[in-house]
Amino acid sequence: MSNxxxxxQKPNAxxxxxxxxxxxxxxxxxxxxxxxxxxxxxxxxxAAGVAFAVGGSSGSSADTAANGxxxxxxxxxxxxGTVITYGKxxxxxxxxxxxxxxxxxxxxxxxxxGKTIQQLADDGTYKIEYHLATFLDKNLxxxxxxxxxxxxxxxxxxxxxxxxxxxxxxxxxxxxxxxxAFGDVNHILDLxxxxxxxxxxxxxxxxxxxTYAPWAAKVNDEFNKSxxxxxxxxxxxxxxxxxxxxxxxxxxxxxxxLVKQVTG
Length: 264
Known about the structure:
The protein is α+β, with helices and mostly antiparallel strands. It contains ten helices and eight strands. It has helices at about 15-40, 45-50, 105-120, 135-140, 145-160, 160-170, 185-190, 200-210, 215-225, 250-264; strands at about 75, 85, 95-100, 125-135, 235, 240, 245, 250. Helix 5 (about 145-160) runs antiparallel to helix 8. It is globular and about 45 Å long. Belongs to the thioredoxin family. DsbA subfamily. It comes from Kitasatospora cathayae.
């Protein structure tokens, strides 16, 4: 967004070049910070603190469907329905996963080790609690994280398994984080078509109308109250797992070993 004041004359070529250069430099700074953080071996919890600055609320109620009522999806749990739990309720351990659908390191973890993460939940080793955020919308512009999260709420309303499958489809088709492709509702609905049985009339209507946008804002607000400073952050029984090393996601075997260290 330009800070140039309105006048009766169009900005001259020099002013336009100055504005374009400033925007380009800002984008370049964001890219350099991400690359430097990854190259230095810093996990995303630090990389996000530098490059993505988790701290402000990008999905506040004022910013997302402010005029709509708060509708909490069926199957939501935790504080005010802001936590999504997958797995057996009586599992002896709890894996907390903090993610943003536009986060490239989350995509790397999910596409590399996501099946193992899910399988251990299916086997009863732990249950998974998802804590989702939308801070990348604020840091990079757009509304992709919020739109994707609101759609994930609509999927959760259809069933926890539908949420989990849709969650995986979103990461498998994640655009560059600087792109706002997830902000396109039609694109989100196209991706939802990859989950058998998800695109019910109710789901489509909820996505198109942003029914769960205020809920997505509340989920992000709750994320901001946590001690998590970047995504992905993964904790098992409160102990943080090092799921990223030198910017590389833990392999399925490495992740399983980390889990065993905590569970014995």
